[in-house]
Amino acid sequence: MFDFLPHSFLQMNAIFISILIEALPFVLLGCLISGLIHSFLTVDVVKKYLPQNKFLSICTGSLIGVLFPSCECGIVPISHQFIRKGIPPHTAFAFMLTAPIINPIVIFSTYIAFSNSWTFPLLRVAGSLLVSIVVGTWMAYFYKDDIIKDLPEEAHAAEHQHTDAKNAAAVLAFAADKAHLEDASKAPVQSAAAISTALPSKTKNFFDSLWESLEHAVEEFFDTGRYLIFGALVASAMQVYLKTSLLLQMGSTKLSSILVLLLLAFILSLCSEADAFIGSSLLGLFGPASITAFLVFGPMVDIKNLLMMSHHFKGKFIVRLIGLIIVTVVAYTIWI
Amino acid sequence: MIRFILLLSYFELMSFLQLSGRADQYINVHYQYLTKLSMALAFLLALVQLVSWTRSGHANEPHHHHGHTHSLGKPWQRMIAYLLLAYPIVAGVAFPTVSLDADIVSAKGFTFPISEESVGDPEMTTQYLKPDTSMYFNKTDYDKRMNHERQDYLDQDKIKITDDNYLTIMELIYNFPKAFSGKTIQYTGFIYQDPVGKETDTFLFRFGIIHCVADSGVFGLLVHLPEQTQVSNNDWVTVTGTIQMEYYPSFKTSIPTLKADKLNPAKVPSNEYVYRDYND
């Protein structure tokens, strides 16, 4: 029926389907987790557990990804949901940048890809932590503009949220007062007790909330899914129609080969669980510095990930974010 | 309702790929739990959508619930979103499945794993192309495993490469080119001709899938064919020949190559890919 399609298009299609097969389960999982966060994580819980100090909060965000076995596709909706739940953007972004790299699955696949050696997994993890701390600090202390897009349709819903936010603010003010009065060392115990008493009053019923989170996951899927598909289409077209082989011949100096591999990481849009294998095959040609750049940058910025980000966050912010990531990665890897 | 159908179709697409065996044209067999995971999750969400659709009294509008907003407000936006989401289902089920071939090699390029041993003349190699290999070749389990496997093949003078051991043997040959020099091997692959100036380098490659087709690459050897052999891109052939070391100017290093004595046309295998095996 579709035999008239050109061969190159069908090859692009094969690459497209394979990216989709690889990314879809993680996007679906990301949507489910986002739904659970939506229904179960309350603003006051966040504020109580997260360190008040901005820098410590960035560090917490950078490390929490160890617990999320996810690649970069599922991470954008989760981070966006975090911000909606009152987690400061600098912490949410620190999480978004490191989670696809520092989780056990990705560390392990990097270890395997580089002939069972710890050098590259360690360089990769250290690089991602450095980037997340630089970006988090920039967002916490220097970037003052809004980062979340306000969509036109959101206006009426924002009213809903407004009252929500007011209530939350009241709860917070109360909590803060309480915290001042109490011994800091007791705080975790106290907050745990506060959560257990706060939860039933806030949520009518556990199963209602669970249902709500599932419905939210469906919404999230239809919201994010189209960006994944569009991104996968662009990435597969690049692989077939753009002569990336020309890139392999560039890179005569250390700096230029780092930049070439940043570009390659962006174009290929590989899953962070698989990119180490490509990285290791390029090692002989480009050397360890540019391979480290490839491994750190790829999971943070690539075509499909960028499209998903552009849906949630403002363009001006994304441009600066990417600029800062590039500068940091280059500054880090040039010493290797 | 459209949403329910779409989610159910995703479940069906994954089941179809799984049951028809077409999944191995897209992803390494070792990762097929991913398709199963998608199947389960898409099915769950389809059920959720069905129930919430029934509950909402069949309203056409996807209903808003408190706190959450989405940008699928305008009908045309919703149309585009649904069309995009429907595309993979059409593409996955109805389009003919093809395998990657020489056209992709010329677009994506190819590289060789360059080992400590094969980095030849230091005069010819820039510092840059000669990374400190001790960094990533630590003398531990990896070496033990590779040495163990190498021993199995070193005892043989003639090595026959099959689908199952393809990637393992290619890795060994590139890692220990000197040990394999002079040995006779036989393998099947497709021809890729790389024009370099006036000359043409001929390679015999297979696409190897590490994780999925998107990250697949070609693995194989530069082949010197017997005089007056005519081949063209994408011809499937079986060659028998001797491994030798040779300086390869494009990468400024020595690589193992194959001097072919015999070349026979081969049938295109039913599965053109070889897979990286994690069990060894």
Structural features, described:
The complex is a heterodimer of chains A (336) and B (280). Chain A has one domain (7-147, 208-334). Chain A is built from 16 helices and no strands. Chain A has helices at 7-40, 43-49, 54-64, 72-84, 89-102, 104-113, 119-142, 154-181, 187-202, 206-241, 245-249, 254-268, 275-286, 288-297, 303-312, 315-333. The longest helix of chain A has 36 residues, at 206-241. Residues 152-201 of chain A have low confidence and may be disordered. Chain B is α/β, with parallel strands linked by helices. In chain B, a hairpin with a 2-residue loop joins strand 2 and strand 3 (199-209). In chain B, helix 1 (2-19) packs antiparallel against helix 2. The radius of gyration of chain B is 25 Å and the shape is elongated. Residues 60-70 and 115-139 of chain B have low confidence and may be disordered. Chains A and B meet through helix 1, helix 8, helix 10, helix 11 and helix 12 of A and helix 1, helix 2, helix 3 and helix 4 of B. Chain A: This is Permease. Chain A: InterPro entries: DUF318, UPF0718. Chain A: Pfam families: ArsP_1.
Index terms:
heterodimer, A: 336 residues, mainly alpha, 0% strand, B: 280 residues, alpha/beta, 5-stranded mixed barrel, 7 helices, 23% strand, DUF318 (chain A), cell membrane (chain A), membrane (chain A)
Oligomeric status: heterodimer
The main sheet of chain B comes to: 5 strands, mixed, barrel
Low-confidence stretches of chain B: 60-70, 115-139
Distance between the termini of chain A: 53 Å
Total number of distinct structural domains of chain B: 2
Helix content of chain B: 25-40%
Provide mean pLDDT of chain A, rounded.
79
SSE arrangement of chain B, N to C: HHHHHEHHEEEEEE
Count of helix runs of chain B: 7
